[in-house]
Amino acid sequence: MEFNGASVLLVEDDPTIAMGVVGGLEHEHFAVTHVTSGEAALSSIDDDPPDCLILDVMLPGMDGLDVLRRVKKEHPEMPILLVTAKAAELDRVLGLELGADDYVTKPFSLRELIARVKARLRTRPAAPRAPERYRFGQNEVDLRRRILFRAGVEERMTTHEAGVLSYLIAHKGRDVSREELLQHVWGYSPQMATRTVDNQILKLRKKVEEQPADPRHILTVHGTGYRFEE
């Protein structure tokens, strides 16, 4: 059972199609969640990001392409399979340009859909992880033990400080939003309005930066969040 327990979120407002897809995926031992709107999809992803997203383009209210844009911003590694109308070539092209990994057109073969989901999951890159020990500037951090050595002086880090630093190091060179950090380090919904991340960054900078007010490693990305540079 290669995919036993892998989670799939199906966003489809046609109950007949949804029933068939859910049944087929569950038969293959996937854990399936089904929602019928783009808004419900985003809420579900905020609460529990799936291993794979099957996304109908034509949805009531927020359409699938708008959902795709939002999801790829917050979860760039998530495999997304678009479901489009047979004649909607423009939607397919735009969807792929926006970051969709694959597509099927209605009417589609259930076996083909499941095969494409499995293919996306097999080729999905492993989520990046920071090494347990890491050197940058005058710092050496032991992320597992939450210890920072700065110029040979040992200092403890809190769980959240180590979590934020670990996540930023794992995604070094990439802009990381505050919402992404909230979700992956604290487990909060990205929709929560809080300065928790900013306050944690200020504390981290005091520990790892030579000049916290002019940081070299934990950089602010205005309007987005932060980026780690060596």
How many angstroms separate the termini?
42 Å
Biggest sheet architecture: 5 strands, parallel
Helices and strands, in order, run as EHEHEHEHEHEEEEHEHHEE
Please count the beta strands (DSSP E, at least 2 residues each).
Answer: 12
Strand content: 15-25%
What spatial order of strands do you see in the largest sheet? 2-1-3-4-5
**Low-pLDDT windows of residues:** none
Estimated helix fraction: 40-55%
The name of the CATH topology of the largest domain is Rossmann fold
By DSSP (H or I, 4+ residues per run), the number of helices equals 8
The CATH superfamily label of the largest domain reads Response regulator
**Total individual domains:** 2
- Helix vs. strand class: alpha/beta
CATH class of the largest domain: Alpha Beta
What number is the mean pLDDT? 88
Indicate the radius of gyration in whole angstroms: 21 Å
What would you say the CATH architecture of the largest domain is?
Answer: 3-Layer(aba) Sandwich
Report the principal-axis shape: elongated
